[in-house]
Amino acid sequence: MNMSGILAFSHEDREALKMLCRRLRGEAQEKITLSDYRFLKSCIDKAVAEEKITRDRFGLNPIILDLKTAYLVTGEIGHRRDIIISIVLNRCMQAGVVDIKDVDNRFGKNVSNILTSLAKINGLYAKSPTVESENFRNLLLSFADDMRFILIMIADRLVLMRHIAESDNNEARLQVANEAAKLYAPLAHKLGFYKMKSELEDLVVKYTEPEVYAELSRKLEETAASREDYMKNFIHPIEKALKSNPHIKYRIKGRTKSIHSIWQKMKRQKCSFEGIYDIFAIRIIIDSEPANEKSECWQVYSLVTDMYTPNPHRLRDWLSVPKSNGYESLHTTVMGPEGRWVEVQIRTERMDTIAEHGLAAHWRYKGVKSEKGLDNLLASIRDTLEHIAEEDVSDTKFKMELYKDDIFVFTPKGDLFHLPKGATILDFAFCIHTGVGSKCTGALVNGRNVPFKHVLNNGDQVEIVTSNSQSPKPAWLKIVKTSRARAKIRQALKDIGARQAALARETLERKFKNHKIDFDEREIDRLIRKMGFKRLTDFYQQVADGYIDVSEVLQRYKEMLAGDDTPSETVHSAQDFTLNNEPERMGSGDILVIENNLKGVDYKFAKCCTPIFGDEIFGFVTISNGISIHRKDCSNARELRERYPWRVIDARWSDRDANGKRLYAVNLRIVGHDDIGIVTNITSVISQEKDVILRSINIDSHDSLFSGTLTLLVDEFSRLTKIIRKIEGIKGVKQVSRV
Fold first, then answer.
1. What single string gives the DSSP state of each residue in 653-677?
2. Is-contact 534 525, C-beta < 8 A?
């Protein structure tokens, strides 16, 4: 590939290109034809000539970086033709010098799918100024039509970080390092690419904390010789024991902990470099048949622990239950020479390859069934990978099914929000803030105006449009998908209803006051129920909405008071009761003595206590409404006797008229458990009683409890007492009281 054009190639660049091309051709062998190479060269030449490819912000040649990325992926992970072509063509696709349809026709679906995924990610980078969130990682994976594009991204970032150490652009280098720490290293870890993950993390420390990196590198170098000697002494008796078992084929190597791991452990344990006892580990790798892997690993474990005392709290069995990313190994920590703890890792060649190269290594061991227990991120991927051939890894089954019911949406600032599939603009608005959702009128989605019921798609950039005149509506509950938005809308509607009801009540009270009419709570409640409302809030809501005119309410209230013919409120003559003929002193004042058989005096039963035949009663002489009859246990009795003792008179019930019985209205308060059929049981008991009429019933339930008011017409106190006892005996009824 003899490159030419505006992008100048130095002598070093040309030599690097020649070497990389030879290596890639060696890796790809016959799978990349001469025709393929000529096409790739023509695309790059065209992009360079049209100044579509230039050096990056670090002054590096992007074509060389791409070829190094291709070599890293193919050499360490094992991909060949598709991965090389995809990496080389990616920049040409971005430059617009090659069309995806041409790629599909020439190289097939595998390459076009990888390039499509890379194009999507380029779009995501343009939307988000930061890629350091868990949501961005999940969004990235949800775009994975072919998982190999993620391997390309990780490898590309590692190659870049290898070459920016000498750059003067420190700000850009820090950004690259931080993205590697927050996005690429965690991805490499989740996919099991420990070798790349470890190098990425070390380079992050090198660029973000150069003094720490330099100090730890120096100490590792200074202690390298003594560490090697110690490992040899530790390994020697183990090798001797293993050689005595000729059926076990093995190799042993030492592994020094990465600089990043050492630094993290120093910070966690708040100790110095010298305080880290497990700076190195011994790895015993067995060449074992799949059927014998576990048994031979445990056999080696037995040999090691016979020789060195193990720490029982430091045994890690990832043979029986592998890690979520497929890692399998047996770890133990033993007491070595000089009283030093040493970690020993025991695994097979297959396990070691997977540990070093991650999920891609499974393609080399297809047919080997894995253990269950993967995390959600890789559940669908692993099941597919372990049962398909290498050339089939881009099959549609390989697409991430984990996120098929989820979408990720950007704000204009690049923040990411996770929503269920089918979520609308309203869902997103309430996800941001309740105030934003309540005022939402629509949105700009990818720069286009849409209504708030618009369904969002994965990767959309959304800017919510609000208006101070907007408020939640009941119809919104049918638009939103998320339970969070639904709960917020219900709460907002409840708050609005409460404010409107309070305003309507205030308006009604003001209207009554203007007409010099008392606003009696009990009478208003009775009127509202006569109008067919079960709840006060419903009535006030209709007043607030203008469906009920306040003047109409006032007029109906007057008519109700003027035409009410209920027994408890009807005015009668005094002949229905007799006054006590014997004067009796009550309280501290004199008692007004009334002659027996007083005629022509009007009376009525007080609404505050609604006395009935059989109650102990007294009379109170009013200014203009005759005598008011109260129960002696009336809540107002004490105040009447203390403030107006001269107006309190004795009263008693006369013998009943033999020609008929009078019925009295009584209100009962009832509380209990909201069992099935409870109201039916109550009404059934009342209907079976002679001379008892159920005038009205009003019951509300909340949180499996109910409370309500019954209005009965009864003829005497003893019958009321009887009916109360029967209602109390109904299952579920907890309390019955007279009000």
1. EPPPPTT----EEEEEEEEEE--TT
2. no
- The amino acid sitting at 445 is V
More confident residue, 733 or 590: 733
Closest-CA residue to 725 (of 736, 714, 715, 717) = 736
pLDDT at 204: 93
> DSSP 3-state assignment of 623?
coil
| N residues, the chain | 739
User: How confident is the model at residue 234, as a pLDDT?
Assistant: 92
**Over the range 299-337, which residues count as b (16 or more CB within 10 Å of their CB) and which as e?**
bbbebbeeebebeeeeeebbbeebbbbbbbbbbbbbebe
Rounded average pLDDT over 338-367: 73
Q: What would the 3-class secondary structure string for 355-414 be?
A: HHHHHHHHHHHCCCCCCCCCCHHHHHHHHHHCCCCHHHCCCHHHCCCCCCCEEEEECCCC
Cβ atoms 629, 605 nearer than 8 A: yes
Question: Residue 49: in which H helix or E strand, if any?
Answer: helix 34-49
Identity (one letter) of the amino acid at 108? G
| pTM to 2 decimal places | 0.50
User: Which residues, other chains included, contact 729 with Cβ-Cβ below 8 Å and sequence gap of 6+?
Assistant: none
Q: How far is CA 3 from the centre of its chain?
A: 52
Could you give the CA distance from residue 739 to residue 333 in angstroms, rounded to a whole number?
A: 78
Chain position carrying tokens 């890293």 = 72
Across all residues in the chain, what is the average pLDDT? 76
How many Å apart are CA 332 and CA 323, to the nearest integer? 16
Lowest mean pLDDT among 27-31, 235-239, 242-246, 541-545: 27-31
pLDDT at residue 391 in the model: 35
Residue with tokens 């039916």: 680
Q: What is the 8-class DSSP label of residue 569?
A: G
Number of H helices, E strands in the chain: 26, 21
Sequence-distant (≥ 6) Cβ neighbours of residue 96 within 8 angstroms: 52
Q: Is the pLDDT of residue 286 over 90?
A: yes
Q: Which residue has the tokens 């598709």?
A: 82
Contacts of 122 (CB under 8 A, 6+ apart): 94
Alpha-carbon distance of 575 to 191, in angstroms, equals: 98
Q: How far apart are CA 418 and CA 139, in angstroms?
A: 9
Contacts of 572 (CB under 8 A, 6+ apart): 602, 603, 604
Reduced 3-state DSSP string for 225-252: HHHHHHHHHHHHHHHHHHHCCCCCCEEE
